[in-house]
């Protein structure tokens, strides 16, 4: 059985991950409006990754005999000053999620919940990748500023991103046996 303090923290993290998906869906809509299909593609896939994270947390809670509790999701912004401004937001948000995961790991450690602490290692490693990816795009945008040719080049690069097959399997239920 999972301890109440750990369960509450895990449910709070589910809310953070759902907000991440909501934020990135709003950003995707912003980029669609600008006709920047590559940026929109990158964010569409990011939404799916965030929902995959939600599913991992939910499944873990279920496996430990806990109850998933969903909270209200705040409304995300709907526009940004520029693609650079939007990706400054992406990077800042990923840093926030890293802090949340680290705090969650601290709670698990303080509560002596080794299973949860080990479970969170996947998310700790995932956040290193998430921050690095967001920062890489941000650095390119900082180089080109708002130069149309540079934005076009980055947009074409981001069109190439594909979804991880593990996420597709999870969404369809083939990875979890559902």
Describe the structure.
The protein is elongated. The chain starts with a helix and ends in a 6-residue tail after the last helix. The protein contains six helices and no strands. It is mainly alpha-helical.
Mean of pLDDT = 94
> What share of residues is helical?
over 70%
- How many extended strands? 0
Morphology? elongated
Low-confidence stretches: none
- Tell me the β content: under 5%
Oligomer: single chain
What attributes does this structure have?
6 helices; mainly alpha; elongated; single chain
What order do the helices and strands come in, and which of them pair?
Layout: H1 4-33, H2 37-63, H3 83-110, H4 114-144, H5 148-158, H6 165-172
Helix pairs in contact: 1-2, 1-3, 2-5, 3-4, 4-5
Provide a quick synopsis of the model:
This protein has 178 residues and is mainly α. It is 76% helix and 0% strand.
